[in-house]
């Protein structure tokens, strides 16, 4: 027993050191873009090695503060503890409410449960940034109407606030985990042991409390890591919105690799101890006995022609377009994209600029930013650019870029997942998975801001990099940071498929590796890849919103309208996140019309992609013969049968006949 514990402790420390190596590699990544050419690998390697040496030398742990050199860990400890208190309280509040609400929801009639699930889908589409602004607006409105100040929502100097940021930050984990627990409960309640327990007279509520909750605990634990990953990025945004002097605000003031590494290590360590500690020290010994590769090498390709394969893909795509949810979601996104392209083509100046607006009599009506009127339908931003024109022009860049990044993540993840799942031995898979799993404890938005700000932010004299280079750098950063996670995610899906009985049967019957991969694994993996694409698409949109808040826009951030005066930062492509840059000032100054339309546009886009994901899931359920329920808002339910012929439950006597001896012999001859 002591030896097993020692082995697990060594593995725990080893994976932690691997995670530190990853943090060092990420922290020195800005040097990739600071040398000669677009990417200077030599300078990056030199700075990475330098940072690795400084990490183990306490005298080099320096933070530059007001021309003083302070120990970076000692200096960041107080703001770090402030940020962690907000994050910890938000997670406890959100996860606790999610569990309580999920249990209470199970007491409702099925029709109301479906309504709750629809509401959760809608709430999950609302960006965290909008939730924060809505809370601030609500507090200001109540104060104006009643004179009652519900809570402080901004800090001044060394003042600290807790209630407002904790409330906003708890919304995301609450909604996400609430929905996850409902889905897991719904799946668990379909299992045979539930029917058996009910037949024994055990109450439905007792089954949920004693059996269902215990059985979904492990899956809920794994889902909470994904939720934590998103919450860490939200914490970065919340600190900025509420002007909180937390950990990330000090990181933004000193961009040096040592400061970045120190902050990421401080965030990474407690969550690594919690999640990886639980996983490693509760790992079953039996799982460690299976140390073999599923496939040793690819064999001769199957005889299936490319026309047959193409036909299978076309049939699969056509099946999705027969699903109403998939069709509606796809139609919405395609319509937005088409309108955006048409608007750009037919207008010489796709985005009009209004400095001053006069009425028919020549009287001055307004100066920028202009409120909505018959002259400017949705109003203008601080620079005088039409909000409607920006939405129409920037839609194509937002949709195509998010789609391209999601596709790149999925394709690269799949190409790496196949050898990961099929060729590598189990013990190496576990090591890779443990290392990659550490990325869940690093805030993606913080890393993206640190890496992209020097490249995408322009100066009064223009941009250092060309437009193509800026697009490629942003695409590369947002893709490569997530590829390790998508690789393990897709690889685990492949591993689950390879453990099924029909895969073993195919191997026993002599099916080669290509046959198993393309004829057995891929048909089941197609829907999973579609779902992963949709999830990555939504995640890219949320990252674009976060980057937009910090004036980092797709294609580049221009800070000059012309050479005569300085303007508000704006996107050179007018993609949607460019409108969000002045959102904090817009809400505080009563110019809500500037950002409300773009938030609505993002919500519509996210909801459309969620419909596509649900449609893909329904198509896959029909393919594997799972009975699903077609739900409507008014409670009508139609059970959908698996494809195939339907038979009468009570056959008529005419359907039966007697077979004589001569008929048996005739049948044998035909056989």
From TrEMBL:
Residues 642-671 are annotated as: Disordered. Signal peptide: none annotated. It holds the Pfam family BPD_transp_1. Residues 95-263, 411-624 form the ABC transmembrane type-1 domain. The chain crosses the membrane at residues 12-33, 86-108, 120-142, 162-184, 226-243, 255-275, 326-346, 399-423, 435-456, 471-490, 537-561, 593-613. The keyword Transport applies. It is found in: Membrane. InterPro entries: MetI-like, MetI-like_sf. Keywords: Membrane, Transmembrane, Transmembrane helix, Transport. It is a multi-pass membrane protein. The keyword DNA-binding does not apply. It comes from the Bacteria. PANTHER family: OLIGOPEPTIDE ABC TRANSPORTER, PERMEASE PROTEIN, OPPC IN A BINDING PROTEIN-DEPENDENT TRANSPORT SYSTEM. This is ABC transporter permease subunit.
């Amino acid at each position: 027993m002591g030896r097993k514990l020692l082995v697990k402790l060594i593995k725990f420390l080893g994976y932690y050191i691997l995670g530190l190596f990853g943090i060092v590699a990420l922290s020195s990544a800005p040097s990739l873009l600071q040398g000669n050419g677009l990417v200077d690998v030599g300078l990056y390697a030199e700075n990475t090695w330098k940072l690795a040496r400084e990490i183990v030398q306490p005298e080099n742990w320096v933070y530059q503060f007001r021309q003083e050199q302070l120990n970076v860990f000692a200096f960041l400890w107080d703001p770090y503890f402030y940020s962690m208190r907000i994050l910890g309280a938000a997670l406890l509040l959100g996860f606790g409410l999610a569990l309580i609400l999920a249990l209470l929801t199970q007491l409702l009639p099925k029709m109301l449960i479906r309504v709750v699930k629809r509401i959760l889908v809608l709430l999950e589409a609302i960006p965290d940034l909008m939730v924060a602004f809505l809370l601030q607006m609500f507090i200001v409105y109540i104060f104006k109407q009643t004179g009652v100040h519900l809570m402080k929502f901004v800090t001044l100097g060394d003042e600290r606030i807790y209630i407002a940021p904790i409330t906003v930050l708890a919304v995301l984990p609450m909604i996400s985990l609430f929905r996850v627990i409902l889905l897991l409960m719904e799946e668990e309640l379909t299992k045979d042991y539930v029917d058996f327990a009910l037949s024994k007279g055990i109450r439905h509520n007792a089954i949920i409390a004693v059996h269902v909750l215990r059985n979904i605990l492990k899956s809920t634990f794994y889902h909470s890591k994904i939720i934590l990953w998103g919450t860490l990025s939200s914490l970065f945004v919340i600190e900025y919105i509420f002007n909180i002097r937390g950990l990330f605000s000090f990181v933004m003031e000193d961009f040096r690799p040592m400061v970045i590494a120190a902050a990421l290590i401080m965030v990474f360590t407690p969550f690594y101890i919690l999640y990886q500690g639980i996983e490693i020290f509760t790992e079953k010994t039996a799982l460690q006995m299976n140390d073999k590769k599923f496939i040793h090498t690819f064999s001769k390709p199957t005889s299936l022609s490319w026309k047959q394969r193409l036909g299978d893909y076309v049939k699969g795509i056509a099946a999705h377009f027969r699903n109403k949810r998939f069709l509606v979601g796809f139609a919405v996104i395609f319509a937005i994209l088409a309108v955006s392209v048409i608007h750009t083509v037919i207008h010489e100046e796709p985005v009009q600029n209004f400095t001053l607006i006069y009425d028919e009599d020549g009287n001055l009506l307004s100066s920028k930013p202009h409120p909505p009127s018959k002259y400017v339908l949705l109003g203008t931003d601080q620079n005088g650019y039409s909000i409607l024109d920006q939405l129409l022009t920037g839609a194509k860049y937002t949709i195509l870029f998010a789609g391209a990044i999601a596709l790149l993540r999925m394709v690269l993840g799949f190409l790496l997942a196949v050898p990961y799942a099929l060729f590598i031995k189990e013990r190496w898979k576990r090591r890779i998975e443990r290392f990659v799993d550490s990325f869940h404890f690093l805030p993606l938005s913080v890393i993206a801001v640190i890496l992209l700000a020097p490249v995408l932010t322009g100066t009064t004299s223009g941009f250092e990099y060309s437009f193509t280079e800026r697009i490629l750098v942003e695409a590369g950063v947002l893709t490569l940071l997530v590829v390790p996670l998508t690789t393990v995610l897709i690889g685990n899906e492949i591993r689950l498929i390879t453990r099924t009985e029909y895969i073993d049967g195919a191997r026993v019957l002599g099916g080669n590796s290509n046959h198993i991969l393309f004829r057995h694994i891929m048909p089941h993996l197609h829907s999973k890849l579609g779902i992963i694409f949709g999830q990555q698409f939504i995640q890219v949109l949320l990252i674009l919103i976060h980057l937009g808040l910090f004036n980092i826009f797709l294609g580049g951030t221009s800070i000059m309208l012309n050479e005569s005066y300085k303007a508000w930062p704006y996107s050179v492509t007018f993609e949607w996140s460019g409108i969000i840059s002045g959102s904090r000032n817009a809400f505080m100054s009563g110019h809500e019309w500037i950002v409300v339309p773009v938030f609505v546009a993002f919500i519509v886009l996210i909801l459309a992609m969620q419909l596509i994901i649900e449609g893909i899931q329904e198509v896959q359920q029909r393919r594997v013969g799972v009975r699903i329920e077609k739900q409507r808002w008014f409670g009508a339910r139609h059970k959908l049968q698996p494809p195939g012929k339907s038979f009468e439950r009570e056959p008529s006597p005419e359907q039966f006949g007697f077979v004589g001896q001569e008929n048996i012999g005739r049948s044998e001859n035909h056989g």
